[in-house]
Amino acid sequence: MISELSDDHPWARDALAASFTVCSEAIRAGLAAMVDNGSLWPETDATTLSLALLAAVQGGLVLAQAQHTTEAPEAALDTVITHIHDHAVPPPA
How many angstroms separate the Cα of 22 from the Cα of each of 25, 26, 74? Predict the structure, then answer.
């Protein structure tokens, strides 16, 4: 439905893009807070990670609806979460 709306209705494309931007920004803010509090390395790109996480959720949901299984969103989210974890600062010894 999203692709049909965004192809034929510019106002819908703008509204959808804005809603995805709000979601991505909320995720980015959370990841940036983790950078700021030292949980993630300072060079962590919170913007790119937030887009990857949002894409994993959205793409996973599309596949889950089509396939009637949660395998795709689980795989996508596990992969992105693992990648985020790779940016984690190890706890002090």
Answer: 5, 6, 23
Q: How far is CA 45 from CA 31, 32, 54, in A?
A: 9, 8, 14
55-75: pLDDT as tens digits: 999 999 999 999 999 999 999
C-alpha distances in Å from residue 6, one per residue of 1, 2, 40, 50: 8, 6, 36, 22
Prediction pTM value: 0.85
Mean pLDDT along residues 22-42: 97
Q: What is the 3-state secondary structure (H, E, C) of the chain?
A: CHHHHHHHCHHHHHHHHHHHHHHHHHHHHHHHHHHHCCCECCCCCHHHHHHHHHHHHHHHHHHHHHHCCCHHHHHHHHHHHHHHHCCECCCCC
Q: What's the Cα-to-Cα distance from 43 to each of 22, 25, 36, 73, rounded to whole Å?
A: 23, 18, 11, 27
